[in-house]
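ERR on first pass: missing label on line 2. Operator R.T. fixed the label and resubmitted. Corrected input:
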Amino acid sequence: MRPGLYTRPAKPLSIPVERRRGVAPLAPREIAAPVIVDKATECHVTPPDVAERMVAIFGDCGDVMTLEPSAGTGALLTALLNAGQSPFEICAIEREVSLYRGLTLRKDLHGAGCISQCFLEYAEEWKGRGDFPRIIMNPPFRKVKQHIAAAVSLMGQQGHRESAQLVALVPITFEHPDAQTVEELPPGTFSTAPGVRTKIILIEKPGT
Amino acid sequence: MTDYTATYSAEDNKLRLYASTRLDDETFARIKEAGFRWAPKQELFVAPRWTPAREDILTDLAGEIEPEGTTMAERAEAKAERLDALANKRAAQSNAFMRASEDLARAFEGGQPILVGHHSERKARKTQERMHALADKAVKAHRAIDYWQWKAESVQHHANRKNSDRTRANRIKTLLKELRDLQRAYNHAALVLEFWERNDKPEQAAHVIERGLALPTGDLIPWRWAYDDATKDLTPEEMRLKAMENARAVLNGPKRARWIAHVLGRLSYERSMFGDVPRFGGTVTPVILQAFAREHGAHKPKATATEDGRFILESTAPLPLHIADGKTLDLDAGEWADLMQSAGYAVPEPTERRKSSKPKPATLINPTLEDAEKLQALWAKQMQEACAGKGIDAKENTVTQTTQARYSALSKGDYGPGQTVEIGADGRRIRGTWQRMEYVKTGEPVCRIRINTGGGDFHKPDSVCHITDKPAKALPLDFAALMAPQMEAAE
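pass 2 clean. output:
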């Protein structure tokens, strides 16, 4: 090669080295692992907006003892607490152990009475010995009639002037002589069972 | 019609080919086979280093090779920008993956459990898997940000390091080594050719092959020829002719000369980056010339100074072509300084010798014959004193008069009879002993002398040596005082 090729353009020999700062580490995010339960529990969680509307049917929340017979993951309890319900005036019943453990670990439910028992057995045990002025429930649909009947048997004023109320989310085919349909929910309300049509009912038991 | 532009960059010793359009299959295959690779970001073909074959292809395609217009620093900056863009892309990906993962996590936000056995289970588990996979991707992309940023920074550092003085100085050393390697093959070929021209009889070739004789630079006949299927059946004479043919191919081949010219071109470029090479202003000595010739690949150069102030550099093989055309070069000191400057050779500054940690030994003296005899008499007297009262007869010895050559022969080896010993002010031999892990001498030496321990016996002193063909000197001993008691006793 000719000697003239052994050269370089008259340009700077070096370049400033830009100091790149290390990237900030990713913020740790807590992704709760979903609970795995058997389908026999029929744990189809009430959507938050539906739960909110169900709680709103009671009117003002506060110090009125409220029963949640099939607490599940606590969606209705969350709506109650958000509406101002005192956790000390809540009684939640859940039969499935892992769901019950989830409820007991919730800090916002400290003070609430969480019972690990089948609601039907609970109702049989307490019928005539205690009552609840407010009951809110999303019962297992397979035994919806038994659960509603058991819940109705526990309704009572417990010293309040207002009549006892039961708000429940039931299949659209459910019928009860004292129940009035408050709202029919559209299909797809439940992510796990989008084809099931449901409604919200209210049963009131007037005081004596 | 494709327009080609071929360039060479002395900075990185790479050849580049710019083509205006996509290459046809034949040309592409040709340049790919030559080692060129497509650089998609720069849109050019680049070869990792210069070779004569690659240069020929570029000359064939482009007509002429031009100096590269971009610098290594510019290319590094462009690459750093690309890598920074990659880092930004990974950051965006990381965010997107994390957002998607969070969107999927909302399915479980309400606490909806996975219902085992329910028809929704499969979808729920799939959603969970996707959520975790997206979170993993987000983490991976986030780690990649750091990697690409580190890479971008390294690219800039690398470009600067390649142009740093220290790297350039080391590169010059490497190039000189390459030059010597190339020149060594030339030297060997020339020596082999000369040998076989001088020893051209078949029986001489047979003798060389039988004995496996070789030159200091390498084999006269490659040893593998005796085992290779293609050559093992050749006669010694055929092997000799083949070896000569190979040597001529090395000497007259076109590529090696181009390699050497290329290395010299690169050396001149690298040296020019350090500024002009200073002309040697000191005193030219044969040692300097030999070092200069050796660095440039001359075979065992021997420089001698003539009486008229000139210096002759000789070698058994032809000197490197950029130094001289032949085996000898006769120049005066000024011309040598000019040649060294033109070859880019700077005479290294003399460095101070490391001081020895050992104490300086006493002066070695060749005693006069008179002093040697006096010392011999003193040693005889000291031996008699040592033996007195023990019932032992002390023996006497005589001075050894010998030549330097004879003494050197006697003193060879650790146990030779010729030895150099230290003596103290009392004329006694200084000996050393180990005391408490320390070597302690029995006295302070005033000088060293040569002795002959040959013919030694019990109670017989060693013989003092007097070298007859070397200048002699009086010993720094006060013989009058040392011999006084003996004189008195004699009187």
